[in-house]
Amino acid sequence: MSVAAVADLNQKFSIPGHVRFAAGPGGLIVAEVANVHATSTIALQGAHVMTWQPRQQRPVIWLSRFAKFAPGKSIRGGAPICWPWFGPHATEAKFPGHGFARTVAWEVVGTRALRDGATEVSFRIVQDAATKAQWPHATEALNIVTVGRSLDLALVTRNLGGSAITVGDAFHTYFEVSDIRQCAIHGLGGCPYLDKVGGGKKQQQGAITIGEEVDRIYLDSVADVLIDDPGYRRRIRVTKRGSRSTVVWNPWTEKAAKMGDFGTHGYRNMVCVESTNAADDVVQIPPGAEHRLWVRYALEPLG
Ligand code: TA6
To answer: Where do the domains of the chain lie?
Structure first.
């Protein structure tokens, strides 16, 4: 990270009362958004929303206190972008899990102060020989972040090449909860899911409660997902478009301990509800077309 790079970004894109750029942890440059509705911190690496906190509310996005920040290192928490594949690469075991988007540089392409007081920051992935070696397709990826009373994210994939491409993608978002053992997750009842812990394909009966490691890819899931948190007396609503599968993940004690950036009890205050196109639901994008994966995170009172 260079002081000159930060100064250049502020000269081009800062907006008083909305967004400025600064040196973040581990030498990462961050966009710091602060408007009448909320604050948010977004690392340029991965166009990675690390935090989002509406005014007079607790943080909605969970960021591990033990997260490691360094160029090329994925950040534990926030809203990581999985792209252009989700999970392990279909054929190349040495390629990074969840794709390379979250650990490479993205550039700022625009900032806007919106009429409702929200702030929009747009990022584009920077591709180089290393990424092209893993993804040899003429493709553009954008992340359009809108920070307001809600947090809106749009992952746009444009096929600039002459043949169709198949993309798996996700916002692998970590949500902050008072205590995962007290929460209930609604909106996936009846959906089939691939159980990555117990194996096999199952069907969700009613609400999801979590008291052990959970790692499930829910297929044909397009409805809003609700995270009900009685401890914080709030509901987090996850609304999405352009995503046909949803992953629910909590590593629980052993898996979290092995990861080294969760801390001992971090798993108790988070749950991942990931709006994805994964497994059977990956997307085909014809030449010249684009695909948009859009999510909105919003708070509602509970009880
Ligand atoms: O989305 C759930 C998952 O695929 C889990 O299996 C676990 O690997 C998690 O993502 C975290 O992956 P990461 O590469 O960020 O450590």
So the answer is: 3-301
Question: Ligand 1, closest atom to CA 74?
Answer: 15
* 75 close to ligand 1 (CB < 6 Angstrom): no
| Alpha carbons 213 and 197: distance in angstroms, whole number | 7
3-61: pLDDT as tens digits: 899 999 999 999 999 999 999 999 999 999 999 999 999 999 999 999 999 999 999 99
State if residue 267 touches ligand 1 by the CB under 6 angstroms criterion: no
Across 65-93, average pLDDT: 97
Query: What is the dotted CATH code of the domain comprising 3-301?
Result: 2.70.98.10
Contact between 244 and 293 (Cβ < 8 Å): no
The whole-number pLDDT of residue 1 equals 62
Active site residues: 172, 274
pTM: 0.98
Contact (Cβ atoms closer than 8 angstroms) between residue 301 and residue 236 = no
Q: Are 69 and 26 in contact, with CB atoms under 8 Å apart?
A: yes
How far does residue 112's CA lie from ligand 1's centre (Å)?
Answer: 33
Q: Looking at residue 60, what is its pLDDT?
A: 98
| Residues 266/267/269/270 CA torsion (nearest 10 deg) | 120
The answer to whether 76 touches 66, Cβ cutoff 8 Å, is yes
Instruction: Please list the residues that pair with 124 across neighbouring strands.
Output: 107, 142
CA-to-CA dists, residue 297 to 130, 133, 221, 238, angstroms: 33, 34, 17, 5
C-alpha closest to that of 169 among 245, 289, 83, 102: 83
CA distance 40 to 42: 7
Question: Is residue 296 a contact partner of residue 241, using CB atoms and an 8 Å limit?
Answer: no
Give tens-digit pLDDT for 151-163: 999 999 999 999 9
93 CB burial (10 A radius; 0-12, 13-18, 19+) = exposed
